[in-house]
């Protein structure tokens, strides 16, 4: 019986609004988990190990949560996702400007389609690290920045296609006058309610401010920034909280930061973070851990490309997933997605238990697609892994689009993985 419906998408909108950066996403996921009785554990502290209950831990914008039931245990069921999104990251010395304009120096983070960020009111969010080592989240949730487009009168060839120089033409403005060193970070510190002199590090990103919302004649579409990949983080949190009959498997949510730039960090999917957590859950017993991994499975959930009605030639002709048609299993012969016959069987069993429609996604031979945490985590852990996700349009844009009923179906799929 389905446990998620369109209200799940309403809740996703709230989750997205509360999660403008990976750090906020972990905080919001943690808040929801704690409201459901989960307990946060510090990696530096002692863990209760196999004591029944829900637990989670956070590292640098990545979150891992799990539930111990106390029943006989013979393997993990892991639902994986990522918390980051392509955007513009504020440089260490942000104050710059030209021709009487104050600007903020930024660097491109991940695969950003530049044009989607032009002439858009932007906020700033992220974290500040204070001198005492503490972390403070900040979210300037109002129009602060703008990357202005050159007027068509001065760029008559703009509609013929023109690449933008990310160094010189994607620097947002935020005021008038001469830039003053330290001014921007003083402002951000004030927004966070801290002394600027106490701030000794920051991770700050541009934020698309448009509110998530429905569109279409019957509200059958849902648009928002960070559908990639907060749809999966939100689905995993909801499913882990709702999971009841997990049998002999221990359910785990693993949502990693830095997927959009390759995962090669101390908290990303290529790091030992997840492996360390799973080993600690089993009290460091390697023999038991090895046996558990051999009986475990992971579902790597990320968005994928829905067929685009204006560019059908860009898609594989025999496999044309569409937004609103349910989650996809993502298949790649070259293992850019971690899916083969065993993995497909894992996916189909979970989808059948969930009672949801589903689709295949395969890249066109002449257009290789991106990859996910699936092959990385599967290789790192030596665990059976399948790649899945929702079909969307405008991936990596400042505003993406999916079917309004698909987020709930993804949560049902996660439940189908956790429960059987």
Automatic annotation (TrEMBL):
<dbReference type="InterPro" id="IPR001948">
    <property type="entry name" value="Peptidase_M18"/>
</dbReference>
<dbReference type="GO" id="GO:0004177">
    <property type="term" value="F:aminopeptidase activity"/>
</dbReference>
<dbReference type="GO" id="GO:0008270">
    <property type="term" value="F:zinc ion binding"/>
</dbReference>
<keyword id="KW-0031">Aminopeptidase</keyword>
<dbReference type="GO" id="GO:0006508">
    <property type="term" value="P:proteolysis"/>
</dbReference>
<keyword id="KW-0479">Metal-binding</keyword>
<keyword id="KW-0645">Protease</keyword>
<dbReference type="GO" id="GO:0008237">
    <property type="term" value="F:metallopeptidase activity"/>
</dbReference>
<protein>
    <recommendedName>
        <fullName>M18 family aminopeptidase</fullName>
        <ecNumber>3.4.11.-</ecNumber>
    </recommendedName>
</protein>
<dbReference type="Pfam" id="PF02127">
    <property type="entry name" value="Peptidase_M18"/>
</dbReference>
<dbReference type="GO" id="GO:0005737">
    <property type="term" value="C:cytoplasm"/>
</dbReference>
<dbReference type="InterPro" id="IPR023358">
    <property type="entry name" value="Peptidase_M18_dom2"/>
</dbReference>
<keyword id="KW-0482">Metalloprotease</keyword>
<keyword id="KW-0862">Zinc</keyword>
<comment type="similarity">
    <text>Belongs to the peptidase M18 family.</text>
</comment>
<keyword id="KW-0378">Hydrolase</keyword>
